[in-house]
Design brief:
RluA_PseudoU_synthase; globular; Structural Genomics Hypothetical 15.5 Kd Protein In mrcA-pckA Intergenic Region, Chain A; four-stranded antiparallel sheet; alpha+beta
């Protein structure tokens, strides 16, 4: 389907290429190609220059199929994937940072899904045809453990288990500041920002979202910080990042949610999917449990804070 957006007051005067990139999460290079091809319209007129400014109330039309994988689901054996478990129904991977989970606007190739299809072609008919086998996602720059369904029966059961909060997902994260309590529950609905479509915010009109956290270690220098375990009770987009920022403890290195500060240098946000625990979706009485340590880049950040 095409995208149709009305420019909000907060984006009055913004360049149209930047606006389209925010709406679609595409790269600026991809947006420029769309504009050059005449696929972007403002108030019914084809946009000819990427630097054109938009105004509040303008109607922006983007004539591309945002839901379809741009290059098709072509298996790509060169995509690096670390597989930690595989059986007849379930695959567990340890995703590296920088790997996009599935094709989308601005990410046509080199995704996890395309790498999985090269190794497990049978998943092509499992679940959503645009992201076969995928039952939950990790952000591009989040590393760690992730579940993939190998059969339709496993897919349906895993989706139901996630909805019923029967899959334990634990993340490690380094945050700015030290929480007042050694643990707690952030229970705050999350929805998409009207001002910045690629950002999520705590909103009364959002979807239910709950994150439990526990302080594992605290640091006082160079500035107060804390290493947390965060357990998801729901699975909203950017949930941990939004919830931690909302309580005043943004994830270190998170550019989108005010987590980049000069006191500590980090190559990416310090967020890692460290534990998965669940009952096997198709084998009664079988439990699955996996752990993944902090990768070297994030471990180095934590160590630099531990021993400044």
């Amino acid at each position: 389907m095409s995208a149709h957006e009305i420019v909000p007051a907060a984006l009055d005067g913004e360049r149209i290429d930047r606006l389209v990139a925010m709406i679609t999460s595409a790269s600026r290079t991809q947006v420029v190609d769309w504009i050059s091809a005449g696929l972007v319209q403002r108030n019914g007129a084809v946009v000819s220059t990427r630097s054109q400014r938009v105004h509040e109330g303008d109607l922006i039309d983007i004539d591309i199929d945002l839901d379809a994988p741009p290059a098709g689901l072509i298996p790509e054996p060169d995509v690096e994937i670390t597989i930690v478990h595989v059986d007849d129904d379930v695959i567990v991977i340890d995703k590296q940072a920088g790997l996009v989970v599935h094709p989308g606007a601005g990410n046509a190739t080199g995704t996890l899904v395309q790498g999985l299809l090269a190794r497990f072609p049978e998943i092509v008919d499992v679940g959503d045809p645009e992201r076969p086998g995928i039952v939950h996602r990790l952000d591009k720059d989040t590393s760690g453990l992730m579940l993939v369904a190998r059969t339709q029966a496993a897919y349906e059961e895993l989706v139901a288990m996630l909805a019923a909060h029967e899959v334990e997902r634990c993340y490690l994260t380094l945050v700015w500041g030290i929480p007042e309590s050694v643990g707690g529950l952030v229970d705050a609905p999350i929805g998409r920002s009207h001002r910045e479509p690629t950002r999520m915010v705590v909103s009364a009109q959002g979807k239910e979202a709950r994150t439990r956290y526990e302080v594992i270690e605290t640091f006082e220098a160079p500035v107060p910080m804390a290493l947390l375990e965060c357990r998801l009770e729901t699975g909203r987009t950017h949930q941990i990042r939004v919830h931690m920022a909302a309580i005043g403890h943004a994830v270190v290195g998170d550019e989108r949610y005010r987590g980049v500060r000069p006191a500590v240098s980090s190559p990416r946000m310090v967020l890692h999917s460290a534990q998965l625990r669940l009952d096997h979706p198709t084998q009664e009485g079988v439990q699955l449990a996996f752990e993944s340590p902090l990768p070297e880049d994030l471990a180095a950040v934590v160590e630099s804070v531990r021993n400044p």
